[in-house]
Amino acid sequence: MPFNAGPEMWHIGKTILLLSAFLCSVYAAKNCRCENEEDCKQQYEKDSQSKEVYVFSNEETDVETWSWNSITTLIVSASFDYNNAAQFKTMCVAHSKKRKFGFTVDMTLNGQINVTSNETLQWIATVKSKQAQWHAEVVAINLLPYFKNDVNSSTKDHENLAVLLKNTKDAVRNGSTSYTIQIACIIPWRPPCSEIEEECDFSKLSTDGCDLFIINPESFTDLDGVKCMARATIPFSKLVYGISEYNAHHIPNKQIILGVPWHGYDYTCQQLTNEVCILDHDEKCHYADRKMMSHADLMSNFSAKYLKSDFNELYNAPYFNYEKNDKQHQVWFENPSSLMNKYRLVHELGLKGIGVMYGDDLVSHLPRKMFFDDQEMWSWVNHEIILQASQKPARNDFHYADTVAGVAVGCLLLGTVLGFLFTCLALRKRVKKPKEPFASDRPSVEEFVDEDPNL
């Protein structure tokens, strides 16, 4: 017979959890494995209103070579091992740059979660222990596995999930007075709600569970049933629609971080006609068969195709076709133009920021100057626009419509004033002062001068 913890057992378990969390924090604080112990100290939140640029890492790359000017937070994969010296060093580097550090953790629980079960308590304890070990300021909880197992989730599911996330937040923040640990929830591109349930909403998640919501760019193909064809990783029209749906489910834009890919995908076409690449499929479309290609790979292996790629205006993304071993391929990726449009959308909608997936994609394994070097690629992406937008007045090129409207109104007012002045001047010339009656009958003054010697 399954064991269900009662209220008393829940309070006892929660007390044990908080005590163990506190001991983990004390132990981690006194056992810094960085060369400089200062690098184990969490970074203060400078301004809760400032924009965020999360950069994710899923490999062992030298993050110290990255361009840190516009990075606010480094997030590492759930697979990173605390005991791996090279992987642990990423935290030391982030803190040495005075940036926040975080890690991802998958939500392995599903359905209507029993928030008082031993399984739930153990999951929370694991998250807290990892947060203390990594001296992390951000815990990014990947909710995609949860929603994938429970596609038609209900309000009750969300309420239980919110309680779990709130308890997790309380656990990781317990004993922390100098900084606030953020819980960032990684979510699909649209709310995973049952279409027949009108009351489905995320209000509990946004108020109690998650501080921020990161839209995963990989979810745009996983959760929709349209025609099986190659397409952009983030179709622009679906992006705007998904954000509006989250707004309708009580998640404000100021809590949303847009995940953007710095990699592309190579699709093998079963048929390529009129630029439409139909994929091999049975009852389902197997997007897992596509091949991920980093920007470094694209630039090195397809430099000519990359530079002369076509641009799909509907998806707002570049692509190119090529043939290999008698098979047609179509590659979709991001370039400066498509990324800039997404950065501008973040600015215009007032989103919290962007989440770059992945910083490793810009790491070139080729000799320098063969195509681009890493620093050139980082500056080429130029996502500093997100941070600049939060600290400086909006750039003029963000508001073409506003500028045109302002000029039009100014011209209208100026034209009105000038028209009034010109009309007044014209009337003064055309309307003369009336003469006295019979003035024309009077002799000229020269004819009646008393001193005239001819009189």
- Number of helical regions: 14
Portion in beta strands: 15-25%
Helix content: 25-40%
Low-pLDDT runs = 392-405, 445-450
SSE order, one letter for each helix or strand: HEEHEHEHHEHEHHEEEEHHEEEHEHHH
Main structural class:
alpha/beta
Report, as a whole number of angstroms, the end-to-end distance: 146 Å
Tell me, what's the shape? globular
Major β-sheet profile: 8 strands, parallel, barrel
Count of DSSP strands: 14
The mean pLDDT is: 80
Rg from alpha-carbon coordinates: 33 Å
Task: Report strand order across the widest sheet.
Answer: 1-2-3-4-5-6-7-14
Keywords: Glycosidase, Hydrolase, Membrane, Signal, Transmembrane, Transmembrane helix
Protein name: GH18 domain-containing protein
InterPro entries: Chitinase_insertion_sf, GH, GH18_Domain-Containing, Glyco_hydro18_cat
Biased composition (Basic and acidic residues): 435-445
